[in-house]
NADPH-dependent 7-cyano-7-deazaguanine reductase
Amino acid sequence: MVGRKDEDLQDVTLLGNQNTKYNYQYDPSVLETFDNQHPGRDYFVKFNCPEFTTLCPKTGQPDFATIYISYIPDVKMVESKSLKLYLFSFRNHGDFHEDSVNTIMNDLIDLMNPRYIEVWGKFTPRGGISIDPYCNYGRPGTKYEEMANFRLMNHDLYPETITNR
């Protein structure tokens, strides 16, 4: 039989759990990982999270966004249900858009030490202005650091059609 054994997934406790607890306060401790079964290969994992919500730290008004997370894993990968619960924990957290995407990226770097990661937030307009912060990271001293610099310098040169607003 091909696939993972139960003992390979002992650290994954949320997936399949019918008693999910939703935390309404920022909580990176909910994040879980599992082992990358293809550590010898570079490949992207991309998450599209169209229902992200956080609060403006000044006014308390809700901010809505689609968060895009793309990463090249190394040894560990983030489990998707734990990522969903983590992103949900921003619901009553007050942070500016730029801080939110950097916090997400930093927490995921701390969690799984990826080779490369980028986080892009496309926030719906408030007051006639939308803010779409982008941040990335490539492991220092590697080709991924060069990749991060290139992608940052060339980011959004050709803006796509905006579909989340």
Q: What stands out?
A: The chain has one domain: 22-153. The two ends are 45 Å apart (CA to CA). The chain has three helices and six strands.
